[in-house]
Design a protein that fits this description.
339 residues, alpha/beta, D-Maltodextrin-Binding Protein, domain 2, 11 strands, signal, TRAP-type C4-dicarboxylate transport system, substrate-binding protein, TRAP_DctP_sf, DctP_fam
Length: 339
């Protein structure tokens, strides 16, 4: 009897779900690479999906696909243009050379927190300084994670010379230039691949924020941590297929518009900053060794290398006719007002 009742309840629940999907005028597929346990999945991607559905009275349903189930990290942006996904949450730098002006925000010394970085990058977009890089999709909101640090398996990094010979996972080409300048051998890979690569001895450590150490279980493998305040950050966005947006009636477009921009940029930032606290606390609880570089990216031993990496990147973009220095200057100005 219990099995019969349970079966009936499950059938009713399944029927209700089908009816909800059928009742929706639009069903959006939102794809990202974070695991289902991650705070970014639960409190950004899923929270946005739930809010859009509620605000539209169920006329917009959003199905969230975590863990790269619809597309691998480097393909998540293009998955939106090709309609593999209708919306994606991704890292711009995973699509190499596609968003060079956006990635100016990744350079050393610009941001100190996800809240500050997200404010900067969202305003750069709103001021149309980087918006041309997204002409093929409809960005909903942009944000950054918190400060990126260095986490290693055996060797503690205290100064640039300590990087010599170490293979360090880097998220983007911009961060690769920083690591090369510091003497490391950067190895490119999305964050979800880092655990297995460290476990197999393919790399000796990773460049990640404390959030990444928590989300991708890297604290289990890298007990040495070096905090270099202002070393780098990473830019993200949630973006939507333009044709899907344009096919919606005005009232549903307004639902999407109302769940875009700085408000959601700061919601995402808050999730990252909170996860940074938890990730660091986990490392402390595990008895890990944490070395904090005095003065961060302004430390005399680190600053010349990081300044050169920044200058080289800006000069490279300027040589291609891109207004990198203007974007950089505005990002530095916004860093003050976004504190």
């Amino acid at each position: 009897m219990k099995k019969l009742i349970l079966g009936s309840v499950l059938a009713m629940a399944a029927g209700a779900m089908v009816q909800t999907v059928q009742a929706a005028d639009f069903t959006l597929r939102l794809a990202h690479f974070f695991p289902p346990v991650a705070a970014i999945h639960k409190n950004v991607a899923q929270a946005w999906a739930d809010k859009v559905m509620a605000d539209s009275n169920g006329r917009i349903a959003v199905e969230v696909y975590p863990s790269s189930t619809l597309a691998k990290p480097p393909a998540l942006y293009d998955a939106v243009t090709s309609r593999i996904a209708d919306v994606s949450l991704t890292v711009q730098g995973y699509t190499a050379n596609r968003f060079p002006l956006t990635q100016v925000v990744e350079l050393p010394g610009i941001t100190k927190s996800a809240a500050q970085g997200s404010c900067i990058i969202q305003r750069l977009y709103d001021e149309k300084l980087i918006s041309d890089e997204y002409s093929d999709t409809r960005p909903l909101f942009l944000f950054t994670h918190g400060p990126g640090h260095i986490h290693t398996t055996e060797k503690m990094i205290k100064e640039p010379a300590d990087f010599e010979g170490l293979r360090i996972r880097r998220p983007t080409a911009v961060v690769a230039k920083l690591l090369e300048g510091l003497g490391a051998q950067p190895v490119g890979m999305p964050a979800p691949q880092a655990f297995q690569s460290v476990q197999r001895g393919v790399i000796d450590g990773v460049a990640l924020p404390w959030e990444g150490q928590l989300t991708f279980r890297m604290n289990e493998l890298t007990p040495k941590h070096t905090e270099v305040g202002g070393l780098y950050t990473l830019s993200f966005l949630v973006t939507m297929n333009k044709d899907v947006y344009n096919s919606m009636p005005a009232d549903l477009q307004k639902v999407i518009d109302d769940n875009s921009g700085e408000t959601w940029s700061q919601i995402a930032a808050g999730v990252f900053d909170d996860a940074d606290i938890k990730g660091r606390a986990q490392a402390v609880a595990l008895g890990h060794e944490i070395y904090t570089v005095e003065g961060g990216s302004e430390n005399p031993a680190w600053k010349p290398v990081l300044d050169k990496a920044s200058e080289d990147y800006l000069a490279e973009l300027e040589a291609k006719g891109l207004p990198a220095r203007a974007v950089y200057a505005r990002a530095k100005e916004l860093a003050e007002s976004c504190k």
